[in-house]
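Fig. S4 source data, part A: sequence.
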Amino acid sequence: MHPFTILFVAALLLSVGLRFWLASRQVRHVARHRDAVPAGFADRIGLAAHRRAADYTIARVRLGIVETAISAALLIAFTLLGGLQWLMQAALAVAPGSPFAAAIVFVALVVLVGAIVDLPIEAWRRFRLEQRFGFNRMTPGLFVADTLKAALVGAALGLPLLALVLWLMRASGELWWLWTWLAWMAFNLAVMVLFPTVIAPLFNKFEPLPEGEVRERVQALLARCGFRSRGLFVMDGSRRSAHGNAYFTGLGKARRIVFFDTLLARLDADEIEAVLAHELGHFRLRHIPKRIGLTFAISLAGLWLLGWLSRQPWFYQSLGLTPDPSMADAAALVLFFLALPVFAFPLQPLLALASRRHEFQADAFAAAQTDPKHLASALVKLYEDNASTLTPDPVYSAFHDSHPPAVQRIGRLSAAHAT
């Protein structure tokens, strides 16, 4: 057995074992605190809602355990059990006269198999788990339509990008990874520009935010913060889910602000203004370009590593693949993106920590622009409506949560209000 095979198996066992251990901690911790609302929330969230949030959290974590096990099994089947080798031969049979087309077919088959495996899990999540807790509003017909639309959009965007990357790998010499990185950056920026006006409307309806107090308050806040957008919109989120949210989307002149209709139905004008102030905090503090820059820097390092690994015969052989020379580039791409998460998961707390720091900073910005009690009350409502646990396990949260725990966020906002 090749040393890298041993390293890969050890990293996979460590990653899966760590995920299972974290999940078990979360389940035990949330269950242990199920029957007592934290002191700071006892006057705002009832025991029944707290228990519902605990049960919902535990159900989601348990489904996550199943997902982890299935993903690990699929990874082993793809690599060490010869699944990728079989798919490669199938791709060569589909396009026998064109190695370039066969390479595209090979990558597409890998993605398709992964999507087919994920589909029952997603259906279970939607129609059993979310339905059980009263969140699902999607019909089976809409689920099928969304799945087909997502597949078509993914193919329309992904296949040309894949063809470009494979061409660059063949035509650009040893520095293909640098040219690919530039193409990847351009592609992502283009998608960010096109998403609000071209992609998102394929799945949801967007209506202008109606005239009234909420719109007036939002426009006044935008003016104070010096933010310009191409419009304020309401999205029909209630068509699919009872969860509520608000977000910025787009870049430059294509920026727009979107509110879920479920959010507008639940929060009052003061709370909506405070939630938007939090999102504006991300904009004013330049969190979005910082995150984009970090993503591009990580992708550059990853593509450089892929450029080196693609020239190492042991990289393919140790992961169960002996590629046809004409398929080596596609094989390198597939193996890299399958194996990378196995080795990267232990680093996840660093990214989560940076994200939680940004959330605290955006909360502080909102507290300076609006009354902190309004953001606190909005968050409490959203925690209750979305059945978000108030008592996550600290270690699990450090790995998985991009937002700080509720007790910490509300505690800081309450302290800001008191001053």
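Fig. S4 source data, part B ends here. The CA atoms of residues 103 and 330 lie 6 Å apart.
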